[in-house]
Amino acid sequence: MLDIIHQYWLLFLIGSYPNGPLGGIAATVLLSVIGIGLAFPLSVLLALAQLSPYKALRYPATAIRYLLRSIPLVMLIFGAYFIVPIILGRPVAGFTTMAVTLVIFQSVYLAEIVRAGIESLPKGQAEAAAALGMGYWTRTRKIILPQALTNMLPSMVGQFVTTIKDTSLGYVIGVNELTYAANQVNSAVITQPFTVFLVLSLAYFVICFALTQAARLLEAHLERRNSRTVTHVTLNAQNAPAAGHSS
Amino acid sequence: MTIKKNSVAAVNPESIISLHEVNKWYGEHHVLTDVSAQVKKGEVVVLCGPSGSGKSTLIRTMNRLEEIGSGTIHVNGQDVQGKQVDVNSMRSHIGFVFQQFNLFPHLSVLENVTCGPLWVNKAKQAETRQLAMALLEKVGLGHKAQAYPNQLSGGQQQRVAIARALAMNPPVMLFDEPTSALDPEMVGEVLSVMKALAAEGMTMVCVTHEMNFAREVSDVVWFMDQGSLLEVAAPDVFFTSPQHPRAQKFLSDIRRH
Fold first, then answer.
1. Cβ of B98 and A127 within 8 Å?
2. Using the beta-carbon criterion (under 8 Å), do A131 and B120 form an inter-chain contact?
3. Cα(B51)–Cα(B53) distance, rounded to whole angstroms?
4. For A14-53, what is each residue's pLDDT tens digit?
5. How far is CA B157 from the centre of its chain?
6. What is the pLDDT of residue B237?
7. Exposed, middle or buried by CB within 10 Å (0-12, 13-18, 19+), for A172?
């Protein structure tokens, strides 16, 4: 096993870059960061729309939520793979397709977390802000979201971990990332598939375990700071019912 | 149940709050029935009655935290429940103190007090800070300005909440059971802040079960039961010779404790 790591560590780390596209762990992390980073603002808007008193916002947002939560990620990746080039009228790199899919998919799950964060705040918070004369956006920006998002930080890190694992599904459309790199290694070594994929699993484990631990510390820290008016909800969207989520 | 057009004419210019035939339903349940009353400038009104009588609902309609079914409510000369009203501006002129304090836990005590003027009125940072410090001194919590709400006792939190409401410089203050969530030993400190406010001539409406406060501080007592305002009387009259049978029963129930 060590000789495989020794010989192919660069391929595991960055793929065939700079001679080919960026791949390996670097691409996996980059995809996850793009996925979560762009999904986050979308998820806040989605959550606000789902909680909106206006049906014109609430109904479509809720429809998107039910629709995307009931479709496996792989189906969405295939869908994007075939549809995005048709819409754009030109071929699209697998990396881009995967990034777009992840943003859409994760924004729905992140929105669940944001929504739970908002709903777990006592109603009095919004009322007190309203009683001072603050309008909807001031209330939301200055009073509701800062509290809701801080409380939900651990769950969001959890969702980031899920995203990292989800990037491996990019393999089905040939995205250069960690799993893809492992397959390249496997093709080169030929005789030791078990060892190669053990190394792959270890790589995912190390990244995700580190992040999970970070989330745990964060949660403990927030709990200490936060033992006050807020009902703390730990919600990992992946464990929520009706989640057609495969990873 | 059409709202009468001429009801505006019925508003007494001296009154800061004027309720006219206010009705509210939760489905079939009639929670407010034909409530009409006036609060004059500088008056301290204590609103009392058994639990579930609609006191909190009524006081929450006065800054539109609750909508009403019919009738009109004027505060500071504005039709609070009117379609045209700028709700945020209207609310910024009405101080409101909640039973559960509802301080903002992510803001320091000082920021809790300054956030209204800064974010709603776009007031200047330095002036607002000074005003807030003065108000915190007034409620006896100047030394806690940098603390966070979860580091304060209930009584201290409620005093900050009063300072926060006062920072908007409202002509009228509404208190919705301000001492009901407090441990008994903390009720006094909050009531004395309210007494000081009343002594300064602040117009106040206060839902409370503190009958001593009503007796000592209020100018008028409103008694409600089952959604109706049954008696409006000066405290000495109300406590010595209540007219309505249900007010008599309420007072004798209270005295038994």
1. yes
2. no
3. 5
4. 888 788 888 889 999 999 999 999 999 999 999 999 999 9
5. 17
6. 95
7. middle
> In terms of Cα–Cα distance, which of B44, B51, B48, B54 is closest to B22?
B54
Domains and their CATH numbers in chain A: 2-246 (1.10.3720.10)
Residues of B in contact with A133 (CB under 8 A): 88-93, 116, 120, 168
Gap between the Cα atoms of A189 and A221, Å rounded:
46
B163: closest chain A residue by CA:
A132
N residues, chain B = 257
ipTM summary value: 0.91
Of A124, A146, A226, the CB nearest to B102: A124
- Closest chain B CA to residue A227: B150
pTM: 0.86
Task: Please state, in angstroms and rounded to a whole number, the distance separating the CA atoms of residues B100 and A128.
Answer: 10
Q: What is the pLDDT of residue A246?
A: 38
Q: Using CA atoms, how far apart are residues B254 and B257, in angstroms rounded to an integer?
A: 6
- Give the pLDDT mean for A146-150: 93
Question: CA-CA distance, B69 to B66, in Å (whole number)?
Answer: 10
Write out pLDDT tens, residues B127-163. Answer: 999 999 999 999 999 999 999 999 999 999 999 999 9
Query: Which residues of chain B are modeled with pLDDT < 70?
Result: 1-13, 257
**Cβ–Cβ under 8 Å, residues B22 and B34:** yes
Chain-wide mean pLDDT for chain A?
87
CA A233, CA A242: separation in Å to the nearest integer?
19
Could you tell me whether strands B203-207 and B44-48 are parallel, antiparallel, or unpaired per DSSP bridges? parallel
User: What pLDDT is recorded for position B189?
Assistant: 96
Q: Which residues contact B237 (CB under 8 A, 6 or more apart)?
A: none
Start-to-end CA distance of chain A, whole Å, equals 25
Contact A32, A177 (CB under 8 A): no
Alpha helices, DSSP H, located in A71-177: 73-88, 94-119, 123-131, 136-138, 145-166
Q: Which pLDDT value is given to residue A67?
A: 94
On whether the CB atoms of residues B71 and B35 are closer than 8 A, the answer is: yes
Tens digit of each residue's pLDDT (9 = 90 or more) over A57-112 = 999 999 999 999 999 999 999 999 999 889 888 888 889 999 999 999 999 999 99
Residues B230 and A213: their CA atoms lie apart, in Å, by 62
Q: Do A227 and B106 touch (CB under 8 A)?
A: no
CA distance B165 to B41: 18
Contact A101, A83 (CB under 8 A): no
pLDDT of residue B159: 97
